[in-house]
Design brief:
375 residues, mainly alpha, five-stranded mixed beta sheet, 54% helix
Length: 375
């Protein structure tokens, strides 16, 4: 087979890539059933199944492949979703095996016999090594038409960075090759190293996260904030340097475990994450981490709302409440035309607001007079 020249091969010769960045978790020894189930759950294989079963396999873009090290098979570096879909359409026994082993029932559409011939052979583009394919794959899935999620992007960039360091390939070259910003790639790879450190130390397991989706962007966003750096003992400028393993000091590993559980939860311990959405929860968690009282509240299993409230001083809460009350009453005044005078209960509410406002104003005015007389 001539390298870097498109040719057709039998689908039976193709193998799924166990280094596919889309896959979350340890997949070196994973079965094909496990990989296809993961792709089905995370990469919208149901839509691809429907399309190929209806139209046949449209052999427009070749799969990028590399020869397997131990046999004549070809590992698919680019096109794993298409290969997984073809295998589901070609192998009814595989569908049953996935249902049994992975507790996932995949509905495979009926296929017209005239279309099945398109499932037998596909075009491939052989390359000599993963390195030869990285720039094309990276651009396509990081800034191109088929974007990966943040975790897949970060794993891909980290793998490229590790492989290229011996040849002097840095993150600037990688970022330029895939059309992304240098600082974004650096933050992603740095966060991958922190995550790998936590997994290697037995502090955290991605598979143990509470939510089905792994929101990796929560982590690399958090690690770019000064509060998390302080809490984890990271140097203030750590993310400006080239990424390296074991960035979190040994004495801060328990703090790393806490941060990951607060962000992602733990199924085995029955702990839900306190972070629900990246904005504003990552910011609020950071503010709690650098406040002793807030950390204590969070460590007692209370909510992020409760922990964050304990970090806000009474005068700050009072000022914010007063401003919100003013804005709300101004909004009501602007909508007075909607009141037709028929509902007595609304007038009673307005009376209550007036009495409360008069009490607040009276007490504030007295405190102001007392403060002036003490000057």
């Amino acid at each position: 087979m001539e390298l870097e020249k498109t040719t057709k091969v039998a689908v039976d010769r193709l193998r799924l890539d166990r280094e596919n960045p889309r896959l979350v978790g340890e997949v070196t020894d994973a079965s094909d059933k496990w990989i296809i189930a993961r792709l089905y759950r995370s990469a919208e294989l149901d839509e691809l199944l429907q399309s190929i079963s209806t139209n046949g396999y449209l052999d427009i873009e070749p799969l990028v492949v590399v020869r397997a090290p131990d046999d004549d098979a070809l590992i698919v570096l680019e096109g794993n979703r298409r290969l997984a879909t073809l295998r589901l359409l070609r192998e009814p026994a595989l569908v049953h095996s996935i249902a049994s082993a992975e507790k996932l029932r995949i509905s495979v559409p009926a296929v017209d016999d005239g279309l099945r011939a398109t499932f037998d052979q596909v075009s491939v583009y052989p390359v000599a090594s993963r390195e030869r394919a990285r720039a094309f794959i990276g651009f396509k899935h990081i800034n191109g038409p088929a974007k990966w999620d943040a975790y897949a992007k970060a794993r891909f960039a980290a793998g490229w960075y590790r492989a290229g360091r011996a040849d002097g390939v840095g993150l600037e070259q990688i970022a330029a090759a895939i059309g992304d910003r240098h600082d974004t790639i650096k933050r992603m790879v740095s966060a991958i190293y922190v995550l790998e450190q936590a997994e290697a130390k037995g502090l955290f397991d991605i598979e143990d996260r509470h939510a089905r989706k792994f929101n990796f962007s929560h982590l690399y966003t958090a690690l770019s904030r000064s509060q998390y750096m302080d809490y984890l003992g990271l140097e203030a400028a750590w993310a400006r340097h080239d990424p390296k393993p074991d960035q979190v000091p040994e004495e801060k590993l328990d703090e790393l475990r806490k941060v990951l559980v607060w962000i992602y939860g733990s199924k085995s311990d029955g702990v839900e994450p306190v972070v629900r959405t990246q904005n504003p929860d990552i910011k609020r968690l950071g503010e709690v981490l650098v406040n002793a009282e807030g950390r204590h509240v969070l460590e007692q299993g209370r909510s992020l709302d409760t922990a964050h409230a304990s970090t806000v001083t009474a005068d700050t809460r009072f000022t914010a409440s007063l401003l919100r009350a003013r804005d709300a009453i101004r909004d009501a005044a602007g909508s007075l035309r909607a009141y037709d005078g028929q509902d007595q209960s609304l007038l009673d509410i307005a009376d209550d607001i007036r009495e409360t406002a008069e009490t607040v104003h009276s007490r504030m005015a007295k405190k102001r007079r007392d403060a002036r007389s003490a000057e």
